[in-house]
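TL;DR need structure tokens for one chain.
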Amino acid sequence: MDRLIIYKRRLPSQRRALTLIELLVVIAIISLLMGLLLPGLNKARKSARSTVCQSNLKGLMTAIYTYSEYHKEAIVPSYNMRGVSGGRSNPLDGWGPILERDGFSTGNDSLRGNPFVCPETQDNLGLAISNRGGNKDDPLGYVDWPISISFTGSKATTIPKRGFDKIIRVSYWINGENLLGVPREIHQGAYFTGSVGYGPGKNGTVMKTNYFSNIASPGRLIALADGIFSGNQYATRLKQNGLRIGYRHAGGEGSANVAFADGHVGAIRSNKFPRAMSPGYKLEDIERENLGSQTIYANPNSFLEKFKATLEQDQP
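>> reply
TL;DR here they are.
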């Protein structure tokens, strides 16, 4: 009689468990895969945030254009003021709140879901101490507008009498001549916009509105950029004192997203961002930086020719 062989089925609860060594191998493989995938995911996230930032800038330029159509080609002021000093009795409205109040863009006081804020913005009040922008991390933060600015500090404030009932958080820099504090010489129309109403300056004038019709080459003129506030065009590069351009994107030297006066957007690295003429700078360097594919001057040829003529007059 053949031997009866009985096969005993293994119950589910009796299946062999992973040994400690096998478990460690699985964990090691998962860790390796995560290490390979995470840099790519982080890069993709940063690229997506940069794309959102550029979309914000394009939308803001559309708002500025629409504002201009309603105001006979006038460019929105970096802010409106009177006299030469800010303060509680003379708060500055800001280009963001002006566009928001007049219905050309909708902003809020948040770092999220706000077209006036770059997605890479740090949670850092860029003008908490003064209006000089001296802290190296200031340009990576934001400014809340309207604002009362003085040499001792700054504070966001509404201006109900002028229709500004909301605080708007802004982390983009506008290329404006934003004189403040003491009487200074006004270079009317030198940049994209300016602090309308400032004055009288050293030359006895009051700053007026800038117009799109006075821009020589809109496709080259930088209008908006990652950063805070406005002005300080002489300090547009990393490690310069008073920098207000926020290099929030890409590694190494970093790059800033920018919008040009014709509405197109792009990115500029720190060592390529043009600077304004300032004591200690060589005229040929500023000409080279501003007579190429981008400029901070509304009419660089005209302004630099005037500056050159001034230098020649000052020579003995």
